[in-house]
User: What shape does this take?
Amino acid sequence: MRAKSIRSIRQSELSRAAFEAVIKYGLRGTTLERVGKIAGVSKGVVLHHFEDKSALLEAVFRRSNSVLSMSLVELLRHTKTPYERLWAIAHANFSEPIYNKEVCQAWVSLLAEVPHNKNCQRVQLINNARIKSNFTNELKHFMRKDRAIDVAKILGVLIDGIWVRAGLFSEVPNCEVALDEFEITLLQFIGPSLEEREQHRVAREKIKAVAEIALSSKLFN
Assistant: This one.
């Protein structure tokens, strides 16, 4: 059991190193040697845990999705209302430690490999389903369940689109602009009253303050 635990820890370290390599060098420039150098081990150690670059690529996908999941879990700890939980989901995708030029560019290069790698397809489908489910659970407080499912899917597509745009072009991604675009779309579907709009504004501001503290200090340093 101890050996298995050590192996699991080593794979996690190498997955993190591979994720950092993709951010630094791009997918094409990420080699097993460079992953090993970042992790402080030899290429042979990397090959011992991942038989080829394809297996390493799958681990990078899992790592990137787990970072998003961890950030959402941390934000949800500080929420009390459906408004706050909706904005926690949004902020988990657009907080500055995650939504930046280097990570967005790395994500675009990773997405280009999805059609060619069934394991990466599976990981991405699971991640998309998780985001859709998270949104659906909270949107049900604002609309019928069948409509909530449809809107949740659209919001997921919107988030993907904002990330892809940020990764393709040279301008620095702006977290507040991304959240503004999310808010415009969200409120169009909800059709809130003036009082509800104020609830969304307050929730967004609260989660922003929480994210600046919790995500920067606890998860990403």
